[in-house]
Prior knowledge:
Number of strands of chain A: 20
Strand order of the largest sheet of chain B: 1-4-2-3
Strand content of chain B: 5-15%
Number of domains of chain A: 2
Number of helices of chain B: 17
CATH topology of the largest domain in chain A: Purple Acid Phosphatase, chain A, domain 2
Low-confidence stretches of chain B: 68-102, 183-313, 334-360, 403-424
Oligomer: heterodimer
Mean pLDDT of chain B: 59
Helix content of chain B: 40-55%
Region (Disordered) (chain A): 192-220
Radius of gyration of chain A: 25 Å
EC number (chain A): 2.7.7.7
Structural class of chain A: alpha/beta
Radius of gyration of chain B: 30 Å
Largest sheet of chain B: 4 strands, antiparallel
Family (chain A): Belongs to the DNA polymerase delta/II small subunit family.
Mean pLDDT of chain A: 82
Strand content of chain A: 15-25%
Shape of chain A: globular
Number of strands of chain B: 7
Largest interface: A-B, 114 and 115 residues
Strand order of the largest sheet of chain A: 1-14-15-16-18-17
Low-confidence stretches of chain A: 208-216
Distance between the termini of chain A: 26 Å
Subcellular location (chain A): Nucleus
Protein name (chain A): DNA-directed DNA polymerase
Shape of chain B: elongated
Amino acid sequence: MEDDDADAFLRPPSDEKYSVIERTPSSYNPLHSFDLAKGDQKHYQQQYGDMYFLRLAKLKPAVEELAEEAWGDLEIAGESVRRVDRVLDVRQGELCWVAGTVYMDMPLKPNILDDISKDHWIAAPPPREKYISPSGQDQTMLEDESGRLRLIGTPLQMNMLVTGCIIAAMGTENANGDFEIIDMKVPDLPRQPQRWERDEGSVALANGDGKSKLKEHKERREGSKVALVSGLCINGDEGDTLTLDLLMEYLTGEACGQATQQDVGKISRLIIAGNSIAEGNPLHPRAELLDKKPSKKYGYDSAAYNPAPTIRFDDFMATLLPSIPITLLPGEGDPANVSLPQQPMHPALFPRSRNYASEPGSAEPGWLDSVTNPWEADIDGWRIMGNGGQPLDDVFKYVEGNERLDMMENLLRWRCGAPTAPDTLWCYPFQDKDQFVIEECPHVYFVGSQPAFETAVIEGPTGQTVRLIAVPKFKETGELVLLDMDTLEVEIVKFEVFNDK
Amino acid sequence: MISDPKNYLAATVLNDGKVVSYRLLSRELKVHSNVAKKMLYDFHQRQTSKKPGSVHATYLVDGIPTITKAHSTNGQTGDGEDAYMQNSPVMSSSLPQEETEEYTIPSKSIMLAREEDLQAVKSKFARIRSVHIYSLGPSFVQNLQILSECNSSISSNHAHEDPLVVGKQYGVIQNSGRRTGRRTPALPMPIMKSKDTPKHQPQGSSKSTFKATESSDRPSSAENSGRATSQNESKPASKPALVKQEQSDISKSFSKPNARMNKEKPNSSPTVSSAPVAEQAGTRATGEDEPMKDSSEGEQEAEFTETNKQNAIRSKSQSERTQELRKMMDESDEEMEGTGEELSQNSEPIPTPKEASPQPAVTVSGGRRRGRRKVMKKKTIKDEEGYLVTKEEPAWESFSEDEPATKERTAASSMAKGKKAGGKPGQGNIMSFFGKK
Lengths: 501, 437
């Protein structure tokens, strides 16, 4: 079936005038939750232990509230369930519940203490896809500042657990000293802000009169969409960038027919969720560095650096930016720091696109907004939260199966965006606050650089609904995700080059 | 400029054997991209009716594909990397699946295909929203990837066009809310300038622009791209001057004629033509740097030609000022490298005594340069309270050209030395400026 005007461009040129398409504006209000202090204010001497403490302190009340509700006046076989404050206070044979941090003791999980004690200074084994031990040697522990309990019982098989998430467990300690659990609770979704809540709040704060509110409302255009893409993996080679070109032409509204061009005009923002540049990470294997003779040249050695990927990416963005605002998250391979939260890629990397970045120190977000990973913002009133994929990829190693959406859901229900940090995921040693704790439930939660596109809607206990989106790697799938900002429905656009031979 | 699409396409596709995409055509002929698509079609029709097979087209098909793949299944895309140590498969767990409703995700597909495959591609679509010619080429395109050549030539050849101005003409979706945070005329351009032409840009003109008034920095940057070739020749000559003071003197004497020639050139070929000329020269000289060229450069040149017309008289004093600035820049570079002193002295046009003093006694004997120069040496002493205190004290040391790079040497004259080894005059100058931090 073909649309009537499908071959509108398969005609000789006429005098037809094409009207200028105006792009739907984007209401954009980023939060700077994951910005780290700059320069001297940023320290790495602190111990990571504080993070676990802070996380537990923050989430324990939430999970205890839920547990109290569920088990408060529960009686099993005539025995009422007692609440125990600390893990160490659990008495053998007594039915009780306790909250704490989960620790997964997995023999296959990398362990720095093992490496040091066994003097393993050989080359690291290749990274594992999963830490799960096939022979079932994995143990689940519940710990707090007082001590540790080994957990056993069927609920462990029913629920996904990774190191670092906070749960409340109900059960009894058996003769072996294991805590046999009957039921468990996770903190579940936190409060979800209303749409436009924050924007209205800030407007009201700014100047309580109705005038600017009007202006604010004008921005609330219907039918706007946000495009999500991840894993562009630009490597600067010629020869495999055609789908990238198609993406660019699609987004600028040059490709395709007029109906599609009109649709594209509704896309109000592009979010690039990590891994824009392939192999942007300049860490070379040690052997390679040793082989290399020290350069006689003073200073910058241009041979050691390949500028092509960033130039190509800069080109890509500079072509799009006149037409569409871009939010740029760093990812695993991008030229940003490795540990989470990754700080924004510096605009100086993109000499052409940087014109559109905000001036240093200005509060207003730039037209090209280079942001942290993870990152959250209010777009068109919705709270959007996302990351470049590392937290999810790390959780993936702890659990069985491939259900990425389940893992995403659990991240939210644990209220922790990166539970496995700092155990197996590199992160900044937070001191005052575990920034990965999710305090407000997002409306949209996306994770970049996933093997395939997936989406679902989950619901929380107090009516929260969250749209989960696993954004696929564009390089492998050619897929762009469009998120409708009225309904939070998603659709995908796939760019392909037909090649039979 | 060839404005007739038939002539242009005949010349490019048939004669030069190049591939032309609708996007490239719209840029070349300054028409709406939708019109360009039709032009391609028109040309394709005429040519194939005249001589079938003389041009080969690729089509872009946009629509809704027939088979909507069941998304939200498991996410395993055969990652055949043996980098992973795969554990033995675990039994699929009985995770209580939340209702991940299996509804079909609306999906669109945009597919590029050769004309030979067009029917096969069309059959993959349940509904076709549009079909148009993407590109025309003289022969069967073995590897479609070469089509991206068209876009890279746009980004190199049309970079000087301001996308904010011409975008509308090509049918790019407009955005009135657009903010360009830094698009103030003074700041971004000079910075990018230095990125564009680092090779033939020995004296830190990028730095000069920070202090320069607008009128003076424009001629100097236009000079850079316009006179790139001649500077390339002249600069190495000035290079051997190891002592900074001397270097700037020599470069002064070289650059003076340059500046004058420059000044005359735009004047003699006024307005429109001079911009492309300068542009081309720049492109040629930069070679592999092409993609870096950017719009603001072009703008700058365009602006330059305009102002130049108005300011033909003023340009004399401008070139003098450029001169002065350049001298100033040399100084500041030295200070950075040699002593790490504050840049605060930059504003003095006359060399400070410190810079002047190293000048004496550079002799050339047997092809080697020898001499004495003043360097700042670091001295670390323990004071009464037991703290380590580092002081910088001036000291004289002798040097010769082929002496192995000593510590002081690298500190003091790394710039000159590294430069010569690399054969890229001046670049290290800028880089070491950044490297210092």
